[in-house]
Amino acid sequence: MTTELRVRAAQALGRDRVRANIRRAMDGLIDKRRAAFPDTEELERLRDQGKAIRDHALAKLPALLEQLEQNCTANGIRVHWAQDADAANGIILDIIRRHGGTAIIKGKSMVSEEIGLNRFLEEKGVEPIETDLGELIIQLAQEHPSHIVAPAVHKDRREIAELFNRHYPDEPYSEDIERLTAMARRVMRERFKATKIGLSGVNFAVAETGTLCLIENEGNGRLSTTAPDVHIAVTGIEKVVARLEHLAPLLTLLTRSATGQPITTYVNMISGPRKPEELDGPHEVHLVLLDNGRSRIHADPELRATLRCIRCAACMNHCPVYVRIGGHGYGTVYPGPIGAILEPQLQGLARQGELAQASTLCGACAAVCPVRIPIPQLLNRLRFEQAQAGRKDAGAGAWMERHLWRLWAWIYASPARYERFMGLVTSLGWLAKISVGPWARTRTAPRIAKRSLHDLAREEGLSND
Amino acid sequence: MSKPERVLFFGTCLVDLNNPEAGLAAMRLIQKAGVQVRFPQGQTCCGQPAYNAGYRDEARRVARLQIEALQGSEPVVVPSASCAGMMRNHYPRLFEGTPDAPRAKDLANRVVELCDFLDRVLAIELADHGPPLRVAVHHSCSARREMGVADSAAALLRRLENITVVEPDHAEECCGFGGTFALKEPEISAAMATDKASAIAATAAPILVSQDCGCLMNIGGTAEKAGFELKTMHIAELLWERTGKDV
For the Cysteine-rich domain, which residue ranges apply (chain B) (predicted)? Predict the structure, then answer.
């Protein structure tokens, strides 16, 4: 069946330049991660620790969220709860309007992508200004991020040079990375000075201290959260951890898994607005905690592991499907293996169920996940849920699929039927020659033996007791 | 596991239909090492195709038959890391909470992948009678990651002294087979298989071996369609061909 995913994937596969860009970038990230974890024992110990910390936080999620709210409030951070994307967007717009804002400067935030914040704000007459270099590139190109850590990873230097040249005609044309970065910085500085409201994501929210931890490499995160009068932080409810000491192992897992860095250039620990005696910092800090389906995921003991994710993107960096179709091939905010388990749960199997099929279950993702999310096992679970739903589906495709499996089981669950089936197939070797369909487009037909192993083993006397 | 007197052999449905010579070679290797082999005729398929497609009831029906067919106390040797992984790791989960759970767990504990068995359990000695040969190896994802038995395949190949083993670029990457994945997402699967076949062709080895027939069928079919001169062989066939003849 030619599905939307297949159409998108085929388009993505046809873009040779993008494919080459992604392959080059992913190979680089894989090498960097490997170099960052030279000691396998230490890595495995850290992964155990990371998993345990995240499991602990998820086991006590409701209590920790209450504690987080209390401690943030005590620190002067205003906490807002958003059931879904609309609620989160509404809360953010209210804050902006209350301050008469017409623009916000944004640090990188995947949750803001999840809720479609930029489009929403534009419709309401508020300009969202992306300040992360990758996000800026994406915004100028009017695209969506293709990777959760490196949003413009599908673009090469020349494309970016041309893009900047179109949008910043006063700046000299350059394909030099440092010059391009300097260009973005010059443009951004003016926006930082003039904009009164900043928005950022959150990497971890610490319940015991009411601290928001935000890591980044460009300093735009620090500027977005300290230069404006108002800072709005937006994050998913699962990002809470119990204790401050939990950050050290999680941060080292996150940065080493993501980019191979021992630590990011900036580690921001935001613990409230400017105090009376302080000279800088925002006057107001808001924290918007988004559910948007996470409670539902949390309620299932097996699927809950999805929420352990710390968004390092190592799973997509190592994924043979992602490296070929890129983030845009998935057509969802969160691509790659984590997207393939998260998006069907956030948006429902009816809408995104096919993503669970977009994997060979090769296990490369689970082998590198810093918090040991068993992604193949969860994909299997989602496929099971989908098949269960398919049993009640009246559509022709679903009918055909479930009856094929029923027929398969009918043959393969009976030695007698299997023997007759094999006898038939092996005697009709020419069947393979006329094989058509998707398999045969790029492959010769599978060989069919003249005699089965069952026959050969019997003949060799290997089946006698 | 210590060296057993006798083993049961689970051939897998793919070997049965596509490459029975591999199953026969595997059983001969085991016999030559002094272990009796029995191939129960009641076996069919481990059930993985349905299990991975989400059809657990159908997978259970078929898996239950294997539990019947493979009763006993002997180790069950499987010439595929993928099918061995299904039986070893997923049977206990598939039968959890059913009356067959204890039998499923018992079988799971007896399952051992062929290369693992030859290398670690039998510590098999291989005298290579073949001419010098360059061989490319593809370790399946199940062998490499799920079962951790890729090392054993590599160790067996190292025992063939006239063989030079090469691995392709991006060796750790999946070949794109993935069972029903190849049919459900054929474009992505084809792209992966084409890259894998090209990387193997670039090693200039005339032969590709693997411990999983699914990968071989996928890579071999792609290589043939692309016109590459590449013969694919299950590792058991290569081992038997070069060491089994004269003793």
Answer: 7-88, 135-219
